[in-house]
């Protein structure tokens, strides 16, 4: 992984005009993506994770979308302001997308091979023959057996997992710099999901693509992500490396998410729950949007939106609990267990160094 | 959780259940080939497997939403295929209820919550008049954690989690003994799933219920179930107690299924080894001796008679290993 930022989203805010009024779907989102890294965005339905990423590819309906503020910088250009024609050169070429439902996102009346070859012809301007050759290579790459035979098949002749492989092949056809995967495995069985995730990890290593991975499944995040952003009610409430989010979470919402997932350990007896349901973004609550569901909420949470506090260079969380004058609280048991593991991981690292030092010391 | 197995009384017994759709035609689908298991009174039995493995078909057959192609299902000692008269059917359905996967699709959009839940009470003649019925609907709503003011609302006015609670209240309305939850939490958000699971567990304690919990999310199934059955390709391949399934999974399919669950723990994920299952594994030539064999008390595997000793050895080895780590 290089340390070069290829995408930067700054202060993005998006609303939708609906019958009932203006829904503030995304309310000031900031994140960046480095070359070759996987950033996972987690959150419940309606938290704004899909909307933020669809904005990157400008796939939101023009009719009722209002971009309130923000910029999306890709290779020095703000994608929110470039012309549609220019956007078409980026979409599918530099930034490709994989969607949740492989059945509705493939063309049912077109041979799958042709669907894979199409973007190659369109963006790379190669001949039909060359594009077909490339499509066959791609089908082989994503693990579709007998590509020459399957080239002529239609989507309905494929199973869900195979269709998702076709989707991945289409997305990778032009060797995009960024791959946005929006819940790519949610509709699949666990065993098929495992295959697709392995495939994506392998391809990421080979092609050095950056991935934005949207999901609500924290297990999948643990397997895929280098960094994780947790979204709630249209905002990123916590962002950090995978280890920081899973072993040293700071935001009560992240605590709740981690603690409300049953583990496979034997003899688990209680399951933590986050009470209530997410707020209506037609008129978001004053202060911290999570306050009403938060058992750790402070007085100030109901009046004033928390700042984004810095924990380490990579780890930030939006909660007043990190304010120097906030009282200290004890998170749910499961989170305490995780924090202990974090400490042992950290001390494990320093211990390894110490042991190494001793070894050298004894030799001299 | 593991009460003395001898004392337990089965409430449901399924024997060699088969379900073929379009039987005899070219388009025949053998959804369920051979399923046998029993569910004890007061327990939660989890049924897991991939889509198309036949787990929902089994649940639907159990509540008589379709006729069996073969085999026998008994509920409280009575063969359910013998239940034909309307009066008997009503009695049967009063005792067994179902909670469906899609909370919106399973509620009539034109009825208010009061009519949805009250309808069940009316059909089964469980209330004298509408006033009493309304009272009971309020009680039910409160028991599933909903406000009684919600009674006059329509399903579309609720979130997914709230709709699922209405579905649960409807199932509870007729005071059943047995509830089938067919992917009852799959359509819900993570934070809401835990709420509904805890509610189901609470209601089970307070109403003396027995559950058949059908799902594909193995970690939730493990959390709620006492015993688990693993299905694949129309067959039950392994049945045992929930904890044992995770300590000592014996059938290769169970192993592959367990190795595929992503856990919210990056350290574990980095060192994960996946095993893949070859379906050719249970294509036995000599079918006479192939069935569910008891490897240990309450631990059954679908295998050939000759494999039993092998599986027993494997189990002992795994249990020993688990003890070392504990």
TrEMBL record, chain A:
Pfam families per UniProt: ABC_tran, oligo_HPY
Keyword presence, Electron transport: no
PROSITE patterns documented for this protein: ABC_TRANSPORTER_1 (PS00211), ABC_TRANSPORTER_2 (PS50893)
Organism of this sequence: Alkalibacterium olivapovliticus
Name by which UniProt lists this protein: Oligopeptide transport system ATP-binding protein
Locations listed in the record: Cell membrane
Family: Belongs to the ABC transporter superfamily.
Keyword ATP-binding set for record: yes
Keywords: ATP-binding, Cell membrane, Membrane, Nucleotide-binding, Transport
From TrEMBL, chain B:
Domain ABC transporter: 12-258
One Pfam match: oligo_HPY
Record SMART domains: AAA
SUPFAM superfamilies for this protein: P-loop containing nucleoside triphosphate hydrolases
Membrane-crossing segments per the record: none
Biological process according to GO: peptide transport; protein transport; transmembrane transport
One Gene Ontology term of the molecular function aspect: ATP hydrolysis activity
Location of this chain's protein in the cell: Cell membrane
Keyword check for Transport: yes
Main location: membrane
InterPro entries in the cross-refs: AAA+_ATPase, ABC_transp_ATP-bind, ABC_transporter-like_ATP-bd, ABC_transporter-like_CS, Oligopep_ABC_C, P-loop_NTPase
Gene3D superfamilies from the UniProt entry: P-loop containing nucleotide triphosphate hydrolases
Keywords carried by this UniProt record: ATP-binding, Nucleotide-binding, Peptide transport, Protein transport, Transport
Coiled-coil intervals: none
Topology with respect to the bilayer: Peripheral membrane protein
PANTHER family tied to this protein: D,D-DIPEPTIDE TRANSPORT ATP-BINDING PROTEIN DDPF-RELATED, TRANSPORT ATP-BINDING PROTEIN
The protein's name: Oligopeptide transport system ATP-binding protein
């Amino acid at each position: 992984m290089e340390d070069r930022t290829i995408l930067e989203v700054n202060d993005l805010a998006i609303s939708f005009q609906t019958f009932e009024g203006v829904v503030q779907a995304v309310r000031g989102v900031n994140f960046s993506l480095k070359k070759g890294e996987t950033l996972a965005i987690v959150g419940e339905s309606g938290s704004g994770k899909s909307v933020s990423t669809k904005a990157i590819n400008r796939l939101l309906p023009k009719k009722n979308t209002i971009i309130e503020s923000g910029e999306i910088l890709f290779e020095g250009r703000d994608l929110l302001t470039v012309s549609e024609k220019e956007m078409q050169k980026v979409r599918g070429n530099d930034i490709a997308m994989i969607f949740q439902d492989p059945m509705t996102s493939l063309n049912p009346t077109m041979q799958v091979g042709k669907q894979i070859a199409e973007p190659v012809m369109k963006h790379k301007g190669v001949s039909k023959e060359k594009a077909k050759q490339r499509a066959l290579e791609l089908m082989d790459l994503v693990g579709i057996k007998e590509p020459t035979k399957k080239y002529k098949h239609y989507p309905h002749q494929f199973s869900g997992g195979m269709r998702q492989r076709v989707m991945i092949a289409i997305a990778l056809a032009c060797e995009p710099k960024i791959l946005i995967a929006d819940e790519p495995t949610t509709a699949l069985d666990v065993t098929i999901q495992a295959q697709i995730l392995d495939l994506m990890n392998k391809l990421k290593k080979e092609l050095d693509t950056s991935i934005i991975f949207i999901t609500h499944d924290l297990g999948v995040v643990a397997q895929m992500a280098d960094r994780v952003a947790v979204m709630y009610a249209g905002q990123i409430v916590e962002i950090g490396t995978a280890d920081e989010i899973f072993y040293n979470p700071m935001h009560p919402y992240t605590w709740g998410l981690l603690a409300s997932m049953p583990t496979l350990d034997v003899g688990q007896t209680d399951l933590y729950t986050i009470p209530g349901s997410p707020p209506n973004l037609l008129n978001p609550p004053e202060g911290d949007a999570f306050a009403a569901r938060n058992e750790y909420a402070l007085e100030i949470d109901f009046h004033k939106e928390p700042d984004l506090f810095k924990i380490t260079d990579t780890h930030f969380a939006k909660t007043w609990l990190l304010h120097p004058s906030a009282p200290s609280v004890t998170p749910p048991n499961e989170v305490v267990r995780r924090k202990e593991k974090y400490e042992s991981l950290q001390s494990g690292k320093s211990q390894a160094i110490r042991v190494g030092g001793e070894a050298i010391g004894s030799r001299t | 959780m593991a009460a003395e197995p001898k004392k337990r009384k089965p409430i449901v017994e399924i024997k060699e259940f088969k379900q073929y759709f379009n039987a005899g035609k070219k388009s025949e689908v053998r959804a369920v080939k051979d399923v046998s298991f029993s569910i004890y009174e007061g327990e939660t039995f989890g049924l897991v497997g991939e889509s198309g493995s036949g787990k929902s078909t089994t649940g639907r057959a159990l509540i008589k939403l379709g006729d069996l192609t073969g085999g026998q299902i008994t509920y409280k000692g009575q063969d359910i295929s013998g239940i034909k008269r309307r009066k008997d059917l009503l009695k049967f359905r009063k005792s067994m209820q179902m909670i469906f996967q899609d909370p919106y699709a399973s509620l009539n959009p034109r009825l208010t919550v009061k009519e949805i839940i009250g309808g069940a009470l009316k059909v089964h003649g469980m209330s004298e008049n509408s006033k009493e019925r309304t009272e009971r609907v309020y009680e039910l709503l409160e028991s599933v954690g909903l406000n009684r003011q919600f009674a006059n609302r329509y399903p579309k006015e609720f979130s997914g989690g709230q709709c699922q609670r209405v579905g649960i209240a409807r199932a509870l309305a007729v005071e059943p003994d047995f509830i089938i939850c067919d992917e009852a939490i799959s359509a819900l958000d993570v934070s809401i799933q835990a709420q509904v699971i805890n509610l189901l567990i609470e209601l089970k304690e307070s109403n003396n219920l027995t559950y058949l919990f059908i799902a594909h999310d193995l970690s939730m199934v493990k959390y709620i179930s006492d015993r688990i059955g693993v299905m694949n390709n129309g067959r039950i391949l392994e049945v045992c107690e929930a904890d044992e399934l995770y300590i000592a999974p014996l059938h290769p399919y169970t192993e592959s299924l367990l190795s595929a669950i992503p856990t919210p723990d990056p350290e574990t994920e980095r060192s994960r080894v996946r095993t893949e299952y070859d379906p050719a594994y249970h294509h036995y030539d000599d079918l006479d001796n192939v069935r569910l064999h008891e490897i240990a008390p309450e631990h059954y595997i679908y295998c050939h008679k000759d494999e039993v000793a092998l599986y027993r050895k494997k189990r002992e080895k795994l249990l020993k290993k688990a003890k070392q780590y504990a």
